[in-house]
Amino acid sequence: MPLRLVVLVSGAGTLLQALLDAQAQGRLDGRVVAVGSDRPGAAGLDRAAAAGVPSFVHPLAAGADRASWDRELTALVAGYQPDLVVSAGFMKLFGAAFLERFGDRIINTHPALLPAFPGMHAVADALAQGVAVTGATVFRVDAGVDTGEILAAEPVPVLPGDDVETLHERIKIVERRLLVDTVNQLSRGRS
Ligand SMILES: Nc1nc2c(c(=O)[nH]1)N[C@@H](CN(C=O)c1ccc(C(=O)N[C@@H](CCC(=O)O)C(=O)O)cc1)CN2
Ligand SMILES: NCC(=O)N[C@@H]1O[C@H](COP(=O)([O-])[O-])[C@@H](O)[C@H]1O
């Protein structure tokens, strides 16, 4: 049985699209059963609709109780009975309820070679530090920020003249492949 995937996105959703494309082409031992976002306008939601995948939006309103938001997100995701939760450009930290419910079944893809450059601005931070090589990492989410068990990682060189946009786009090409490969590896490891 293919893994049931719930994919969480906040922006463009090109990593989600890589999963949807791999699924459509029979290269994914998984099925995206739902897409969720904290941002109502996220383009990833349009990608879900185009693929006929149900979606939901769960914004964190200013001043809202964070633990309640986390419990509600947990219930929304749990409703789709995922085998694996994929955080693919989801820009919110998961809290205790979410982590307790899904345990080691949450993965995230990050645009740097962890443990270097954790957080929301990994590409800009790598450029600011002047490193010659950065990369992409897929890891299991834990209670820290980008501190979980690393499942896959690959270096990406920083080229002369790179800016955040050009470097991030090259990293995302690697992330898309690593993410599909990691889902397939986790599926194989289950059987
Ligand atoms: N408990 C965890 N949750 C998440 C992790 C993680 O490692 N542990 N990874 C992220 C993705 N991520 C980078 O990889 C990341 C996302 C968001 C933040 C952050 O500080 N977010 C702020 C709000 C930002 C905003 O909405 O503009 C917040 O949540 O308050 C840091 C790292 C997925 N979740
Ligand atoms: N810390 C989390 C983080 O930086 N996530 C990053 O957001 C991008 C999402 O791209 P997409 O919206 O095109 O899929 C990806 O590079 C992902 O690693």
From TrEMBL:
<dbReference type="InterPro" id="IPR002376">
    <property type="entry name" value="Formyl_transf_N"/>
</dbReference>
<dbReference type="InterPro" id="IPR004607">
    <property type="entry name" value="GART"/>
</dbReference>
<dbReference type="InterPro" id="IPR036477">
    <property type="entry name" value="Formyl_transf_N_sf"/>
</dbReference>
<feature type="site" description="Raises pKa of active site His">
    <location>
        <position position="146"/>
    </location>
</feature>
<comment type="pathway">
    <text>Purine metabolism; IMP biosynthesis via de novo pathway; N(2)-formyl-N(1)-(5-phospho-D-ribosyl)glycinamide from N(1)-(5-phospho-D-ribosyl)glycinamide (10-formyl THF route): step 1/1.</text>
</comment>
<comment type="function">
    <text>Catalyzes the transfer of a formyl group from 10-formyltetrahydrofolate to 5-phospho-ribosyl-glycinamide (GAR), producing 5-phospho-ribosyl-N-formylglycinamide (FGAR) and tetrahydrofolate.</text>
</comment>
<feature type="domain" description="Formyl transferase N-terminal">
    <location>
        <begin position="4"/>
        <end position="182"/>
    </location>
</feature>
<keyword id="KW-0808">Transferase</keyword>
<dbReference type="Pfam" id="PF00551">
    <property type="entry name" value="Formyl_trans_N"/>
</dbReference>
<feature type="binding site">
    <location>
        <position position="108"/>
    </location>
    <ligand>
        <name>(6R)-10-formyltetrahydrofolate</name>
    </ligand>
</feature>
<dbReference type="GO" id="GO:0006189">
    <property type="term" value="P:'de novo' IMP biosynthetic process"/>
</dbReference>
<comment type="similarity">
    <text>Belongs to the GART family.</text>
</comment>
<feature type="binding site">
    <location>
        <position position="66"/>
    </location>
    <ligand>
        <name>(6R)-10-formyltetrahydrofolate</name>
    </ligand>
</feature>
<dbReference type="GO" id="GO:0004644">
    <property type="term" value="F:phosphoribosylglycinamide formyltransferase activity"/>
</dbReference>
<dbReference type="GO" id="GO:0005829">
    <property type="term" value="C:cytosol"/>
</dbReference>
<dbReference type="InterPro" id="IPR001555">
    <property type="entry name" value="GART_AS"/>
</dbReference>
<protein>
    <recommendedName>
        <fullName>Phosphoribosylglycinamide formyltransferase</fullName>
        <ecNumber>2.1.2.2</ecNumber>
    </recommendedName>
</protein>
<feature type="active site" description="Proton donor">
    <location>
        <position position="110"/>
    </location>
</feature>
<keyword id="KW-0658">Purine biosynthesis</keyword>
